[in-house]
């Protein structure tokens, strides 16, 4: 009988306040409500009504499903064929300690072509990314 009354009491309390149920909401629900969505309603390439992007945001760039500017693997391969890796001299594969960087960033209107690419060490790359 006590078990039945405890279940009934729990059901009444849950009906009155559904948040009192264990695991009814994410643990950090209050923080999740304050968080703004990653992209506006209009999608990653179109601003929401009444919102304009900064002039530094490329609206016409081709983007992937995550909203990132789409890059050409063929252009990267062509760059690497012309400019072997500074550490090991290879013209294919990874280059330890270096990344392929766009001289004029794609988001600033730079082309995704080998002529706009350079080898950059990882430390310099991270510093440059902070200012772009």
Task: Give an overview of the whole structure.
The protein is mainly α and 132 residues long. The chain has a domain at 71-132. The chain is built from 4 helices and 2 strands, in the order H-H-H-E-E-H. The chain has helices spanning 2-16, 29-34, 73-82, 122-131; strands at residues 98-102, 117-121. The chain has a two-stranded antiparallel ribbon with strand order 1-2. The longest helix is centred in the first third of the chain and has 15 residues, at 2-16. The chain is elongated, with a radius of gyration of 26 Å. The N and C termini lie far apart (68 Å). Residues 31-52 have low confidence and may be disordered.
Features:
single chain; 31% helix; elongated; 2 strands; 8% strand; 132 residues; 4 helices; mainly alpha; two-stranded antiparallel sheet
Tell me the structural class: mainly alpha
What is the N-to-C succession of helices and strands?
HHHEEH
Radius of gyration: 26 Å
Shape: elongated
Q: What is the average of the pLDDT values?
A: 74
Strand order of the largest sheet: 1-2
- Helix proportion range: 25-40%
Extended strand count: 2
* Largest β-sheet summary: 2 strands, antiparallel
The number of helical runs is 4
Strand content: 5-15%
Q: Could you give the distance between the termini?
A: 68 Å
- Runs in which pLDDT lies below 50 for 5 or more consecutive residues are 31-52
